[in-house]
Amino acid sequence: MEKQVKLLLCEDDENLGMLLREYLQSKDFKVTLAQDGEEGLAAFSEARDERFDICVLDVMIPKKDGFELARDIREIEPDAPIIFLTAKSDKGDTIEGLRLGDDYVPKPFSMEELVLRINNVLRRSRGKADKSKALYKLGELVFDTQKQTLTRRFTDAEGKSTLSVQKLTTKESELLALLASNANSILERQVALKTIWSEDTYFNARSMDVYITKLRKHLKEDPSLGIINIHGKGYKLIVPNLEEV
Questions:
Q1: What is the pLDDT of residues 41-93, one digit of tens each?
Q2: Which of 116, 52, 60 lies closest to 85 in space, CA to CA?
Q3: Domain annotation for the chain: domains and CATH numbers
Q4: Torsion of CA 136, 139, 140, 142, to 10 degrees
Q5: Which sign, positive or negative, has the C-alpha torsion 71, 75, 78, 80?
Q6: DSSP assigned state of 62
Q7: Distances (CA, A) of 71 to 81, 89, 91, 204
């Protein structure tokens, strides 16, 4: 059974806060609601045994605004995923929100949109964590995420073993790690772009397409492997009998 996502919600509008909490709980999130920055920081600090998976912070909360609270949270847990909610449309605030957090959601917003954004940030966060896994067995290839290599062992007719090692660039390795952690499932383009390139722009998207082409060439060492396009969504790494080693 998949672990329930633990979410810290900081919203000073009592009606909106309760409405958001009820909706998120109906989507199987475990929600703690705080109505000001100090209460939010206390809740985050006290969650020692079971850290929050994600924080959703209104920017304009009393006692300690959302940006200040985010800085304090990141001092406790540098990689804590954070989404800001705001009624402000100032460009400077938007830039600050994207600099400090993982997403910035302007009000008004739909509940469905917020859940989609939360899930996208969680996928990006998990993708980063998955890159810490050392080795993946991809068919006949072994992918070492730390050494950034793809290795295949050949045995000739005389039984002599030969090792073929392909060195990957950092971007190739990061992208393959994301694909491998989502093997046989769709890796959304937006998730990959924001995880590796930080921004979902036209030029970054074209750059990613180039790296996908390079990875396809590397994976040709094993004909059973492949990266397919999922139209309008992203990519899927096809791996028979996926193993972690």
A1: 999 998 766 789 999 999 999 999 999 999 999 888 888 899 999 876 666 66
A2: 60
A3: 5-129 (3.40.50.2300), 131-244 (1.10.10.10)
A4: -10
A5: negative
A6: S
A7: 12, 21, 20, 28
Per-residue tokens: 183: 């093997």
* DSSP letter, residue 169: P
Q: 84 — phi, psi (to 5°)?
A: -100, 140
Residue type, 80: A
**Tokens describing residue 178:** 């994301």
Written as one string, the DSSP assignment of 208-236 is HHHHHHHHHHHHTTSTT-EEEEETTTEEE
Which are the contacts of 54, defined by CB distance < 8 A and separation ≥ 6? Answer: 5, 7, 8, 80, 81, 82, 83, 118, 121, 122, 125
pTM (whole model) above 0.85 = no
Q: Is the pLDDT of residue 12 over 90?
A: yes
Cβ contacts of residue 207 below 8 Å, gap of 6+?
A: 197
Amino acid at 22: E
- Kindly state the helix (H) or strand (E) to which residue 186 belongs, with its residue range: strand 186-188
Q: How far apart are CA 16 and CA 87, in angstroms?
A: 13
Structure tokens at 203: 């030029």
Q: Which amino acid would we find at residue 81?
A: P
Supply the pLDDT for residue 128: 58
Is the pLDDT score of 1 beyond 50?
Answer: no
CA distances, 125 to each of 116, 129, 178, 194, 199 (Å) = 14, 6, 11, 10, 15
Give CA–CA dist 117/109, Å, rounded.
Answer: 11
